[in-house]
Design brief:
This protein is an alpha+beta fold and 426 residues long. It has twelve helices and 14 strands.
């Protein structure tokens, strides 16, 4: 075989190998194309699923009557639904990308702006917990045109794999609900006024009968009349409480501050309750700080606060129990000073599932209702309303069957005067 023949044979072999490589490459390319087609088909299906989900979410958001605002962890608005835009008088493009604290301000019902740190959505982000506005302290959203509307608000943090990514604030306009409440309060006030006269008459005649002014009663007759008198007194108490509630809700009650010795009021209230305390063989301790100054407050309102807190502690503590009343001057926020009233007991306590409702109207926890049938369920509501509307506040800690500690406060500068039609309790 010549050299040329060898070269020819080698070339044929190389061509054959190259053909095999090309065929293999072609098959690999075809497989790659098939994989790519499958990936594109899967991606298209995924895009369709996402598009359908997005359309569904957008339709859902559009159909919700409540306003919804979503923000990132810095408070920058990332989503707002049509209901929110309609209530706030804004367009979506005007708010998206802006901080909620800057572009959507809120205020208390009296018009005082609410600081960023006190806003529910800020607190939800800071605490990583859902926050609901206190129904006794109305929050108002301010519209773009400067008007405002009362709202019920819930703020919920958004967590992903235990990492905070933002929060959602939902709200609704409660103007209509407030108007219904106002009408109900006016009706209660009118009905209570009409009830007062016959109740006073019953009370007067019952006292006369018990005193023997209409002749000597037999023991059995006297017992019946005394029950009538006690029942009438409970009705008078309920009517007075309802009148107080209606005046608080309508904002028609008088605040008439004057220099007042609040410790003297506290001592007087305890003295009034001494027969009940003695009857139940209770250990009543009083602690009054020497540095509590005379304060410019409405003495009538202060008496109502002390009466409700101390009488509740006595009523809902078993015989031979312990009750403590402390009045002192303490440091408040930003270097301010405030009066602090602490009433503690080792009584029945407030069940955990009842604690969120304890300041609402006509509410009494089950564990005390079965033990003490008397009670209107209005006392703590009245106390909280008085304190909220005079610059103070109230809180508590409690454990069922171990006791409760109520802590109320007022700024030491006292209460602001307010004109009204009637004083509470009158």
């Amino acid at each position: 075989m010549t050299f040329a023949d060898d070269m020819h044979a080698d070339c044929k072999k190389d061509v054959a190998q190259l053909r095999l490589q090309l065929e293999a490459a072609s098959r690999e390319l075809e497989e790659t194309k098939n994989v790519a087609r499958n990936l594109l088909d899967s991606l298209k299906e995924e895009q369709d699923v996402l598009a359908r989900a997005k359309a569904k979410d957008e339709t859902l958001l559009s159909s919700i009557g409540d306003g919804l605002i979503a923000v990132d962890k810095d408070g920058v608005i990332t989503l707002v639904n049509p209901s929110a835009c309609a209530m706030l008088g804004v367009k979506e493009e005007e708010v998206i990308g802006n901080k909620i604290y800057d572009i959507l301000p809120v205020a208390y019902e009296n018009g005082t702006p609410i600081p960023r740190e006190e806003r529910l959505i800020y607190r939800a982000i800071a605490t990583r917990q859902m926050v609901v506005n206190d129904p006794s302290q109305i929050t108002c959203f301010l519209r773009k045109d400067g008007t405002r509307f009362p709202s019920s608000i819930t703020a919920t943090p958004i967590l992903f794999k235990d990492e905070l990514v933002g929060a959602i604030e939902s709200f609704r306009d409660i103007t209509h609900e407030r108007e219904i409440d106002r009408v109900k309060s006016e009706f209660v006030s009118l009905a209570s006024h009409q009830l007062r006269t016959p109740l006073s008459t019953i009370n007067w005649y019952a006292e006369m009968l018990v005193a023997g002014d209409a002749g000597v009663l037999t023991d059995e007759q006297k017992k019946y009349v005394e029950e009538i008198y006690k029942g009438n007194q409970r009705m008078v108490e309920l009517v007075n409480a309802l009148l107080n509630v209606s005046r608080l809700e309508l904002g028609t009650f008088v605040i008439d501050p004057e220099p007042t010795d609040v410790i003297a009021i506290a001592k007087d209230v305890v003295q009034e309750l001494e027969p009940k305390i003695f009857e139940r063989k209770m250990d009543m301790k009083e602690s009054y700080a020497a540095d509590v100054p005379s304060m410019k407050v409405d003495p009538n309102l202060m008496r109502i606060v002390f009466q409700n807190l101390v009488s509740n502690a006595v009523k809902y503590t078993p015989p031979e129990g312990h009750v403590t009343l402390a009045v002192e001057s303490v440091d408040g926020p930003e270097g301010s000073k405030r009066l602090q009233i602490t009433v503690s007991d080792n009584g029945f306590g407030i069940p955990k599932d009842a604690q969120a409702k304890i300041f609402t109207k006509l509410y009494r926890a089950d564990n005390v209702r079965i033990r003490e049938t008397d009670g209107t369920g209005l006392g703590l509501y009245i106390v909280k309303s008085i304190l909220d509307q005079t610059g103070g506040g109230i809180s508590f800690v409690s454990e069922e069957n171990k006791g409760t500690i109520f802590t109320a406060f007022l700024p030491l500068e006292g209460m602001r005067k307010r004109e009204g039609t009637k004083a509470l309790g009158s």
